[in-house]
Amino acid sequence: MRGRNVTTRLVTCFLVGSALAQAGEKYFQITVVDDQTGRGVPLVELTTTNSIRCYTDSNGIVAFHEPGLMNRKVFFTVKSHGYEFPKDGFGIAGRALETTEGGSATLKIRRINIAERLYRITGQGIYRDSIMVGIRPPIDQPVINGLVMGQDSIQNAIYKGRYYWFWGDTGWPEYPLGNFHMSGATTPLPGEGALDPDVGVNLAYFVRENGFAKEMAPRPEPGPVWCDAFVTLPDETGRERMFAAYSRVTPTMEAVERGLMRFNDDKEIFEKIVEFDLKSPVHPGGHPFLYREGGTEYVWFPQPFPLVRVRADAKALGDLSQYEAWTPLKEGSRLDSPQIDRAADGAIRYAWKKNTPMLGPKEEAELVKKELLRSEETLTQLRDVDSGKAVTPHSGSVYWNAYRKRWITIRCEIYGTSMLGETWYAEADTPLGPWVYARKIVTHDKYSFYNPKQHPLFDKEGGRIIYFEGTYTYTFSGSTDPTPRYDYNQIMYKLDLADPRLALPVAVYDLSDDGVPDRFGTARDARTRNQPMSVAFFAPDRPAPGTVPVCAAPNGQGLAVPSTSSTADAGTSGELPLFYAIPADAKNPPATTTPLYEFVEENGKRRAYTADADWSRQGFRRSPQPLCRVWKSPTCLRFTLD
């Protein structure tokens, strides 16, 4: 049905062109731009003194024309999630503008978010105001596409040379209830006709005869069908196929059926091929990725972190007995009667195990409460890098990043400063962790922005620039005031990983061999050791505000810190720093940091370093002052780097 969609695009382009030829003369154009980049900011609310609310479109434009309020001075308050506008002496954030017909004004707004809001991807009126003032939009269908009014939660797959997009529940103009069996669209791949992700996304929807987004996963039984875990794999003949896990749910969102679907290229729909046992302890989900370990390629499923995997084989994908979970439970154990796998000395044993559930944040918390696990034995250790406040992860994505040479996650927080509206960034050396220190990159005031997903396909500058989107909706937020046009739609963001605020503490491993902690390294230094490594502490591996480089001492004994607060890339030995730290005498250091103590052997031959002030070893004495401050390690788990 994509042919009809192409025809609709041509008609839309003609109508938009006609509208542009007549537009602009009567409207007053207000453009709100990011004061850092100069780019127009979508989703900025402008409100008059009698509560007329206008919202900037994806160009950051409002086309204002209100009888009685034209050709006079009108005051607009200005606000937007994650942005600030200057306040006057009465604490009011806004500006009075002369609203002349055909005139214009530009307002600069300060971005608090680290990530930059780019544009809305789905829904009606994406470039409504731009068209009204006579500006040609960058996408083919800027006012409505596939008759889509709103769409929930993005899923993607690369299949047969195109980028596929899928969403859950989809609204349309004719009635409050729309398509509850998945919607879909495609775009070209980057470099093969796709728009620059800075500019927009040209979606070609799969549509019905009436032009509305078609059901991509139809089922005859009652209840919405939600699909995730989209992945492409060769079948037994070597033919590329696209698969998706599905759930059929009740109105209360309880799954009554799970299984696996496969895309039928001729019908352009997904068809059920396997139904899963609802009681199975493990199943596919999330935004999967392919990753090879130990010579075997696996499909990994982040739920919310990638703790479930299966061999990258089409037959294995549909066989839950082949799935493995990274878990501390004994193989075959269940969550209603958990048995912890421990060695003879009591040490926790994580391993890949079949027929065994993973532990999510909720399950871990319950086991800690029951004293079956210690907090330092859990995998969910995400926390705010400045305050140390726990960040309870919800949905998100995990991908390898070439720029950071680490795994990165864009993740939604549940029960943060908003219910589901806070988005965080974190890094780890392996898909399994350690995921610890995180930085908030997007915030919302009593509004949801859930199920965020990065598009690694869009990465630029070797992965330094990344793009992600999420579902903007008042659902679950506690708000009763949905944003016109924007609500229940997808919004794209851009993030520069070179931003100094994203120089987060990473794991620094103990590389010593005899129990005296005298040698350390980040993943760069530790990856050559194919064995489980313990985390000594955390510290940035690149300059961060207020840090100094820590290097190996020139004589090869111990660590050296410059006497001044420098962020140079080389230390006293002329080598690259091992890590960066906060000076020992820093005023108001982050609450998450702790002193790194130096212990000197009495004969002066060796030096040891630890964040444990009570560490003792015969012949060693603690120096009077700490060497520096590093970030605390909350985990006792060991990680194997590859």
Keywords:
642 residues; mainly beta; Immunoglobulin-like; 7-stranded antiparallel β-sheet
Task: Describe this structure as you would to a colleague.
With 642 residues, the chain is mainly β. It starts with a helix and ends with a strand. It contains five helices and 44 strands. Strands 37, 38, 39, 40, 41, 42 and 43 form a seven-stranded antiparallel beta sheet that branches. A five-stranded antiparallel beta sheet has the order 21-22-23-24-25, with no helix packed on it.
SSE inventory with pairings:
Elements lengths: L1 H21 L5 E7 L10 E3 L5 E3 L5 E4 L8 E7 L3 E2 L9 E5 L5 E8 L4 E5 L7 H5 L17 E2 L2 E6 L2 E6 L2 E3 L2 E5 L3 E6 L15 E2 L19 E10 L5 E10 L5 E10 L4 E8 L12 E5 L2 E7 L3 E6 L2 H4 L6 E4 L23 E4 L6 H9 L13 E2 L8 E9 L4 E8 L8 E7 L8 E6 L5 E7 L10 E9 L15 E8 L9 E5 L9 E2 L1 H4 L5 E8 L8 E5 L6 E2 L18 E5 L9 E9 L5 E4 L9 E3 L5 E4 L6 E3 L2
Parallel strand pairs: 1-8, 26-30
Antiparallel strand pairs: 1-4, 2-3, 2-5, 5-7, 6-8, 9-33, 10-13, 11-12, 12-15, 13-14, 15-16, 17-18, 18-19, 19-20, 21-22, 22-23, 23-24, 24-25, 27-28, 28-29, 29-30, 31-32, 32-33, 34-35, 34-36, 36-44, 37-38, 37-39, 39-43, 40-41, 40-42, 40-43
